């Protein structure tokens, strides 16, 4: 039995909470991905635990370390301060060191700025987006579900438009400060973010009384420099969504913008809409049509502004809306979706461990 220790994406998942059913952290059963992975690995003679189960006294020469998101020095210190379970480890104690990086450059720019240095730390690196480096592996952002929720999908009593996103900072001054200290510059932190595009969409559709907004943090000031949009945001803010799928099923369309424009970076946002019979207005991965058929979603790039988008959405007949829904359902049931399925990710994970 090979012992593999996962450094989870957040310290709350230590103590093997990553694999448990806990509604506090497992909204919409999203952690079922990792429960499936743990069971799949057992069938491949691999035992998965979170990193706090590793003990130097019981360690073997075959132990493998896998990090879900890279943790630099400051992040590790912060985690140890917040959670005493997080261990101080030396990566050279492990036979293999593997990184699965889910977050994009906008969220964790330090990873992408220092990717060549990380290649000296990790034996293998997998990114959920594509960069121009032949030593880096690409993986599809894995999804918990591959079939529609029929009751939600069939719901015909729907309002017009929604957005489900948290209120995030557009510019993280802490990261810029750290970058300046460590690297002497911050020019590479200028990624094509889409957080401001979300706020502009909220502002426009708030003025036309067409949108309901869900997510954490919108009761506070929107990020600088969009403070003056607070009134428009508060007007349409409905609080957090207890279930994304139930909420999406109550609307025909959803503003579905990724955090940033990043090649190959297709997250759960667009698939969540498909599962609930909601039609996403998508903006994000510039190569989205390589992964998802264009007949399944509305491409924001086809419209010069939000007014043109609104006119298009309002013009769609019930038949045309149902065609989008049907196409998305067929896609989820097709071979083309399988690279995003948890079964596919599990195979990549095991292969990274044993080969």
From TrEMBL:
Q: Which GO terms describe its cellular component?
A: membrane
Asked whether the keyword Chaperone is assigned, the reply is: no
**Does the keyword section mention Cell cycle?**
no
User: Which Pfam families does this entry report, sorted A to Z?
Assistant: Glyco_transf_10 (PF00852)
Output the Gene3D superfamilies linked to this UniProt entry. Answer: Glycosyl transferase family 10, C-terminal domain
Alphabetical UniProt keywords:
Glycosyltransferase, Transferase
User: InterPro entries, per this entry?
Assistant: Glyco_tran_10_C, Glyco_trans_10, GT10-like_C_sf
**Example of a GO MF term:** alpha-(1->3)-fucosyltransferase activity
According to the entry, every stretch annotated as the Fucosyltransferase C-terminal domain falls at 196-325
For this chain, the family text in UniProt reads: Belongs to the glycosyltransferase 10 family.
Q: What is this protein called?
A: Fucosyltransferase C-terminal domain-containing protein
């Amino acid at each position: 039995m090979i012992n593999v220790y996962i450094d989870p994406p957040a310290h709350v998942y230590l103590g093997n909470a990553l694999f448990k059913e806990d509604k506090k952290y497992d909204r919409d059963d999203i952690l079922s991905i990792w429960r499936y992975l743990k069971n799949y690995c057992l069938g491949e003679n691999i035992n998965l635990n979170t990193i706090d189960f590793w003990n130097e006294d019981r360690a073997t020469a075959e132990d493998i370390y896998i990090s879900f998101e890279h943790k630099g020095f400051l992040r590790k210190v912060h985690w140890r301060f917040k959670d005493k379970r997080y261990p101080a480890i030396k990566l050279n104690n492990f036979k293999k060191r593997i990184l699965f990086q889910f977050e994009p450059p906008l969220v964790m720019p330090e990873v992408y700025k220092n990717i060549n240095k990380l290649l000296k730390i990790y034996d293998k690196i997998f990114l959920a987006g594509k960069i121009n480096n032949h030593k880096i592996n690409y993986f599809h952002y894995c999804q918990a579900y591959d079939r529609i929720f029929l009751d939600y999908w069939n719901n015909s009593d729907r309002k017009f438009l929604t957005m489900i996103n948290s209120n995030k900072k557009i510019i993280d001054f802490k990261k810029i400060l750290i970058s300046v200290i460590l690297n002497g510059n911050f020019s590479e932190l200028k990624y094509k973010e889409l957080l401001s595009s979300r706020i502009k969409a909220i502002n426009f559709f708030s003025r036309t009384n067409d949108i309901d907004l869900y997510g954490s943090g919108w009761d506070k000031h929107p990020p600088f420099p969009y403070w003056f949009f607070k009134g428009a945001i508060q007007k349409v803010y409905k609080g957090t969504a207890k279930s994304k799928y139930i909420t999406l099923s109550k609307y025909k369309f959803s503003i579905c913008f990724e955090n940033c424009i990043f090649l190959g970076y297709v997250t759960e946002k667009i698939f969540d809409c498909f599962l609930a019979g909601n039609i996403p207005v998508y903006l994000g991965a510039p190569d989205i049509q390589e992964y998802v058929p264009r007949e399944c979603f509305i491409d924001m790039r086809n419209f010069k502004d939000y007014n043109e988008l609104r006119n298009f959405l309002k013009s769609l007949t019930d038949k045309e809306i149902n065609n989008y829904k049907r196409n998305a359902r067929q896609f989820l049931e097709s071979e083309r979706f399988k690279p995003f399925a948890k079964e596919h990710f599990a195979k990549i994970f095991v292969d990274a461990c044993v080969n």
